[in-house]
Amino acid sequence: MYYELATMTLPFGTAGQAATNVQAYAAEPQAQGELLGCWFTDIGTLNQMIVLRGFADLTSLQAERERTQQSANPFGCGDVFQSLEQHSYKGFPWMKPVRPSAESGVQGPVYEIRTYGIKVGGVQPTIDLWQQYVPPREALSPCVVAMVALDGPLRFTNIWSYPTLDARSKARADAVAQGIWPPKGGPAFLTTAMSSTIAMPTAVSPLK
Fold first, then answer.
1. Exposure string (b/e) for 189-205, b if CB count within 10 Å is 16 or more?
2. d(CA 38, CA 206)
3. CATH number assigned to the domain with residue range 2-98+107-201, chosen from the 4 options 3.30.70.100, 3.40.50.80, 3.40.120.10, 3.40.50.1820
4. Whole-model pTM?
5. Which long-range contacts does 169-174 make (Cβ < 8 Å, 24+ apart)?
6. What is the pLDDT of residues 88-120, one digit of tens each?
7. Exposure of 6 by Cβ count < 10 A (0-12 exposed, 13-18 middle, 19+ buried)?
8. Which terminus, N or C, of the chain has the lesser number of Cβ atoms within 10 Å?
């Protein structure tokens, strides 16, 4: 499964309309892929809308990227956003494809989007370690997706869902206390380039 994370920086008071426009843009007849998540940042870099779209193959992802780049009104928000970034990813091969909450049962409304830089040679060891350690970690909170970037610096992004911020803190503390997270030996394959954003679903987000 392939994914795109698009991030738009928005002026104050425009998030609601921007989300509606994103939903309409993803539903256009010529659109490819599927809208999976549409969040607005709450902790981290503020005034940003983060859009997750899924694609069955790399060809459709690239075609949709080209459509967006050539559009005079990308995401229906060309006259709204102050900046737009798009990044392509491939899901860890052992993970199930991301599905909307109505199908998967995965619920927020607190979503943490974490990105880690990966050292050269560290991609496959990271994928293998996560395959071993994510199942017990998911007993505490769902991992929505883990995916390796196909462009830009070598890195991977993972998204987790929680019912509350307190639940997030407890799950993370319990995972460390139980010795099931982080994956043993995993940090050795990562750089110090790490970031974390807490975002909440907009009204149009299929991941609620």
1. bbeeeeeebbbebbebb
2. 8
3. 3.30.70.100
4. 0.96
5. 171/140, 171/141, 174/140
6. 999 999 999 999 999 999 999 999 999 999 999
7. buried
8. C
